[in-house]
Amino acid sequence: MKKNLLFFVFLLSVTINLMAQSDTKIIAHRGAWKEFNLPENSIAALQKAIALNCYGSEFDVRRTKDGVLVVNHDPTYFNDTIENQMYADLNKNKLSNGEDLPTLKNYFITGTKDKHNTLMICEIKAAITHPDLDKLTTKETVELVNQLGIQERVVYISFRFEILQWIKEMNPNAIVLYLEADKSLDQIAHAKFNGINYHYSNFKDHSTLANEAIAKKLKVGSWTVNELADFEQLKKMGVHLITTNYPETFLKAQ
Prior knowledge:
Layout: H1 2-22, E1 25-28, H2 43-51, E2 56-63, E3 69-71, E4 76-77, E5 80-81, H3 87-90, H4 104-112, E6 119-124, H5 133-148, E7 154-158, H6 161-170, E8 175-178, H7 185-190, E9 195-199, H8 200-205, H9 209-215, E10 219-223, H10 228-237, E11 241-244, H11 247-253
Parallel strand pairs: 1-2, 1-11, 2-6, 6-7, 7-8, 8-9, 9-10, 10-11
Antiparallel strand pairs: 2-3, 4-5
Helix pairs in contact: 1-10, 4-5, 5-6
């Protein structure tokens, strides 16, 4: 009887582990750019992530001086601070593949115009010149999503806690994931956020973190995971959203 019980427990643990691994979703970090020699955050990188059937394609939102929401990771574009420049002036410089500096509107339209399953993982960046711009950028981003009717195709992420709070105030049904590991899981759950998306080192340093988050009914993601060994370790821990610069490689490794 004892042997049968032990075998059952072993079998259950294996099943749970396999289910967790099969549940793993791959998010292309700034689009599928690195593996295909494309500019990061470009329309081409987004389209490649969609072609790969990634769970999501992550990108970064900033605001120009004249109020144009653009997709760019760094606060500067060709050494110009985005927040201090007009869009037309910034766009005189093109991405390495000849594309314009993407506007958020064009990015959203391109990423949601066809029937596919790839979600838009929208990171709203904190302003570097005027912190009060954060609320305006957040408001305009959510309003654009509502205007385009793509609420169910967008997931919001941010390193600033207040940005996600504002999103939830504007749309309580929005999916938001917090990127910074500076709050307790209870604080995140109390804020009605949907989950965490931490740097992979946080999970390696705290091996039960994913299970603790799952117990609080939070989604669990990790960034930016580029080594297959880390990918396998995180899967075993229960991390089910993996953001990577190598989405094709990771999809094949599932």
